[in-house]
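So, who can interpret the following?
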Amino acid sequence: MLHQRIETELAAAAAEGLTRRVTDLRFTGAVTARDRQGREYLVFSSNNYLGLTFDPRVRRAAAAAAEAFGSGSTGARLTTGGVMEASDLEQELAAFKHGEAALLFNTGYMTNLGVLYGLARPGDLIFSDELNHASIIDGCRISRATVVVYRHGDAADLEAKLQAHPAPPGAVRFLVTDGVFSMDGDVCDLPALVRLKEAYGCLLLVDDAHAVGVLGRDGAGTASYWDLPGAIDLQVGTLSKSLASVGGYVVARRKIIDYLKNKSRPFIFSTFPSPADTAAAREALRILRTEGETLLGRLRRNTARIRQGLSDAGIPVLPGDTPIVPVMVGAADRATALDFRLREEGILLSAIRPPTVAPGASRLRLTVTAAHTEAQLDFVLDRLAAAWRQG
């Protein structure tokens, strides 16, 4: 029966243009890659927003840590996997995010699972934006708390649902949102969320995975963008995007961090990131803190250039000013066809289709980085406009 189910569902996905395939690549630079056949690509599908994965200082830091401390952490953090430099990175992340303390996890996905599973419990209520990342959705599910989904970015709908779902005695209410939404590229309305969390006595969790190194004058993310330091109770983030490494973290009050160390099963029972991962992230964070003005300026200029070029070509793009640029296609099969056509031109984008987005909302997700050159930006604009005209 299982084999029959698998065959049926794979055939249905193929018929609808929804089949997913793994692309094996070897990166040759921050925005260039080569496949197994030796074909070269310009990459406009990564989350390497600041282009630091190939910064020689980051690479040297990772290599030196691997040479000095070995290739892996060898275990969970509470047993043998307590890499000393990880505690330094946690202190630096907490200071950067204007919080008291931080805790590292092995991935950003596991951070959301670990925080929600560790803090929320049956009887609590989680109010979750309908376009939140899958890791938040899954964290809500495994927490076994009551989940109330509100319309995307709709503070009035959220308030109505807060009024309709008061907290039972002893229960906690959480407001949970992405800072930058990974499929639409828009920014949450943090002032409205802060007002509601204070009015209704909630804890606010913001996932800053796509916001650090992107938003705010210092690149510190959503709170910096809105000039509301200290307003977010739980700042979740990742090391795998602007910080050029692997892993995740949460910044919060010290007592919350101490509690998670004791209660978050994804933290307690997962092997910790390697010394090289920790060292790479520390160096990337140091570069962001000391050279952020230059890097962020370049990223924002590149983003504006792409968005203006697409607008001039008459290509529909969701509005915004983040480097996540959704080119709205509509039909899944057309998004797939455009993706394949641009691959033939040596350009890697992401065709985003259901169930990641709603039916009829398929898109090409183009991500810009600080490492892209003007010539590379102009090339993708020219090739994308030509493919769009061909239908």
